[in-house]
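Sample intake sheet
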Amino acid sequence: MSGLHLLGVPQYVVNPRLATLPRALAAAIGLHFNWLEAQRGYLPANWDVLWSLSNEEMFYLFFPLLCVLMRRRAALAALLGGFVLVGPFARTVLTHNELWAEYGYLSAMDAIAIGCLAALAAERFTGHPRVQVALQVCGIGLMAFVTLLKSWVRALGLYRTGLDVTLLAAGTALTLIAFLRRDRPGSWLSAPFRWLGRNSYELYLTHMMAIFTVLPLGRACDPGWRWAPLWYAIMIALAGLAGGLVARYYSEPMNRMLRQRGAEK
């Protein structure tokens, strides 16, 4: 991205009124890219995805320390529950603008905490198959409700109270617990989705490059966007390809190297 910025490629140049390239790099490496954007505004979309890394890396830094301090599972679960309770307030009351409401550290921490609680629950969950189905239905229902029925979500005041993100995370967690305990391989129909899921973070970090590649081509070939679903499918395919290549030739080799070093120590 720095190279594309220095080459002056459209859609990749950091606006000098918002930040210099060294400042953007310092924010990304210093894990406060979310704070920089909340203070100065959106940087180019391919840089903007780094806001979530600032939240997640803070979690990876401090969560192991919290586990050591809490020691007991019940104390850790209580702390995670506290993050879940604080999340909606961080997105509504404890914020100074709309960007920080979404990008703030505590604003994203309830979803991460729900994921941790789901992992703790899944470790001990041995529910009846009907319970698993109920969890799956509830989970998928919550995700569909928040993402598809937005007018209902707004009417219920969930955006105003910040509970939409919490419910979405809870639905995701319930679905994951249910699928984890099914203990059988997925069908060939779900194989593409599972492949995208395995490479989801690499896809997330590179998807704007696919979008910026396809959009000009789509505008030139199809000004009315009558074939919009086709262009959308092409974007997903290119993003998946880019994410898969990054995972295969960078992420996974790096993972193996780090784990091997850890094992040797």
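Comment: The radius of gyration is 21 Å. The mean pLDDT is 92.
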